[in-house]
From TrEMBL:
The keyword Nuclease applies. Residues 1-42, 345-365 are annotated as: Disordered. It comes from Armillaria ostoyae. Transmembrane segments: none annotated. Residues 19-28 have a biased composition (Basic residues). Keywords: DNA damage, DNA repair, Endonuclease, Hydrolase, Metal-binding, Nuclease, Zinc. It comes from the Eukaryota. The keyword Acyltransferase does not apply. This is Apurinic-apyrimidinic endonuclease 1. The lineage of its organism: Eukaryota, Fungi, Dikarya, Basidiomycota, Agaricomycotina. One of its GO terms (biological process) is base-excision repair. Belongs to the AP endonuclease 2 family. Residues 29-42 have a biased composition (Polar residues). GO terms for molecular function: DNA binding; DNA-(apurinic or apyrimidinic site) endonuclease activity; phosphoric diester hydrolase activity; zinc ion binding. InterPro entries: AP_endonuc_2, AP_endonuc_F2_Zn_BS, Xyl_isomerase-like_sf, Xyl_isomerase-like_TIM-brl.
Amino acid sequence: MVRTRRSSSVPEQLERTAKRDRKAKTNAKKSQSAKVKTGTNIHSDTISPWHVGAHVSVAGGVENAVLNAASIGANAFALFLKSPRQWASAGLNPSNIENFKARMQEYHYKPRDVLPHGSYLINLGNPDAEKRQKSYECFVDDLNRCEQLGLEVYNFHPGSSVGATTTGESIGLIAECLNQAHTAMTSVVTVLENMAGSGHIIGSDFSHLADIIAAVKDKSRVGVMFAAGYDIRTKEGWEETLTKFDQRVGLSYLRGMHLNDSKTDFASKRDRHENIGMGYIGLEPFHHILTDPRVQGIPLILETPEPETWATEIKVLNELSTCTKLDEKKKKALLCRIRKSLKRAGPPYRAGSKPNGSTKTRKGS
């Protein structure tokens, strides 16, 4: 007799699917926990005096950002406090907050090591009062989340004039919003990110940031995140950039840096991230940065496109910080390690954007 397989009812199918999902989540949590407990990349203040990390995921709860950072050997990390592409998000629940703080202590992270990133929707420089108010409310909600988690700094894009007002007027609106937010919230330092400079973006020139800071009443509540737009491809270029920053803004305001290579050449006015050493910037500039005591002690956050390579890139950057001189042999060895990690990452990554990476597309991408 041939047995026929009895078809399942819809509720039974849903239950089996839910059971599989629960099992997958449990296994993922166990895997992540095991990685943090037994891995070799565990965060420790003794790894390096440089606060190198990455912008890590908060999937499953904001507290998981701490585990994700520890698992890649990060001495610092960035995270989103809510969806960066939605105006409204559910608030943090007490267990999220409690677990985040507990894990911060467990893995020896200090508030200064964590640099939350603001919503991409926020534009405090918009001359449209209604739209600016919507941005401001989203902005203050982020600051409130920082205070709930015990974090001290908050990184955001200054905004844009949207072509509807002058740069000066837009800068004034941003400063006005910051003054209002500093009064509303008690402690968080608002960190302006400098930008690549496309369109009507505010922050493409250090003078924009200096003008905003000049109009902020409480100077202790404002800082700058260096991210893009200046030529640091040579030692001389790096020195000139930092000197210019000190003259126009002041090094005391530098609260963090984004670290990534570039898919586009200098002056493209586009901020297109590439893995360390694989783009138009190259490896040497990161040696200049990681041996400059002026940027020691602030979060240096990777924003490279392949999360699977972050642990390797962090190790490479920390190793660069110990090199008195980066010779060709050492450079080739470090670049080889990054290329190998990219190869392990697999498709859909397209290796290299010239001149340091291969332009050959991997099989399957």
